[in-house]
Amino acid sequence: MTLKTLILFVLKASILLNVFAIGLKASVNDATYMFRRPGKLVKALLAMNILMPLFAIAFVLTFDLPHAVEVVLMLFLHFVGSGEQLLLKKHNKFSAVIIMKK
């Protein structure tokens, strides 16, 4: 097994386990939240699938970056949109713990 194959396997396993862990904590209400709010669903899909890739393409075309940086930037900007809600959820839990300790 080459290093490249190992890194790709670890990344795929990490994504799979993260999605599985999030799914274990989700209720039926959580799973249907966006379908009950079609306006928010359209905005979220537009932001993740159209605006973020367009922003990344514009950024890559504007600046003269090495090819590897361009690829990483495209991937990073794509995953920022999809992971944002998870980060906000963790931040809100941390804030609630700090407020409760005061």
What would the keywords be for this entry?
102 residues; mainly alpha; 4 helices; flat; disordered C terminus
Structure in words:
This protein is mostly helical. The protein folds into two domains: 1-32; 37-102, no CATH class. Helix content is 86%, strand content 0%. It is built from four helices and no strands. The chain has helices at 3-25, 28-32, 38-62, 67-101. The protein starts with a helix and ends with a helix.
List the helices and strands and how they pair.
Elements (H helix, E strand, L loop, with lengths): L2 H23 L2 H5 L5 H25 L4 H35 L1
Please sum up the structure shown.
The radius of gyration is 18 Å and the shape is flat. The chain is built from four helices and no strands. Helix content is 86%, strand content 0%.
Distance between the termini: 52 Å
Report the structural category.
mainly alpha
Count of DSSP-assigned helices: 4
Largest sheet: none
Strand % is: under 5%
Shape: flat
Radius of gyration: 18 Å
Order of helices and strands: HHHH
Q: In which range does the helix fraction lie?
A: over 70%
How many runs of DSSP E, i.e. beta strands? Answer: 0
Uncertain segments: 94-102
Overall pLDDT metric:
76
